[in-house]
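@channel sequence for tomorrow's demo:
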Amino acid sequence: MHKQPINVVWFKRDLRFTDQEPLCYAQASKMPLLLIYLFEPSVMAHHDSDARHWRFVHESLQEMNEKLKKLNGAIYIFHKEAAVVFNSLIENFDIQTVFSSEETGNALTYARDKAMHQLFKRHAIIWKEYQNNGVFRRLKNRKQWSPLWEKKMASAPKLVDENQWTFIQIDQKIVEELKGPPLHASITTRNKNFQDRRRPERGRGGPPGGVAQLCHAAAAGAGGAVATARA
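structure tokens (generated this afternoon):
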């Protein structure tokens, strides 16, 4: 069976379009893109989880999808474990590269990421992860932390061209298989006391100068990406 070659953007704790490094480099790859977010049951059931956090995530995704709807695109939202979702996608698509932010969460998500590295490695899928904050993984000591932090904080924002997308559409049968059970009402129902995060946009949601800039040297794979799936 011929499988369509695609790249996947796996949204994690980076629910935005502006200064979204994985999305920027994925767009520069010129490959058809599949955008996904996973409500993972194991992560949601962890002791540090709270409905207020997941409500904010849910509302952020709804807002992002409203923007993407105008471009005939969408972030596909699945309520299942990461391995289950990606195994199904691998059966149906020829995934070349997965783009995501490095996650700095808890031991559970760290173990999940280690398992996902192995899964991608078995299927010859490149996983490019990008630093999303001032946390530097795998430093042997803190001697270089300060200059690394300064460099990261001073780096230019990575902006996408909102008019240059090639989205793919998933067959509805696959969507039904992967969407999982409905989220709890405490997550999907807006709390009247919850802060309204919607604000009038400047231009199309970015800083002065517009969002039609592409990230620097994206096609060359620059930007601190992990070049291959690590063990």
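heads up for whoever presents: Residues 200-231 have pLDDT under 50 and may be disordered.
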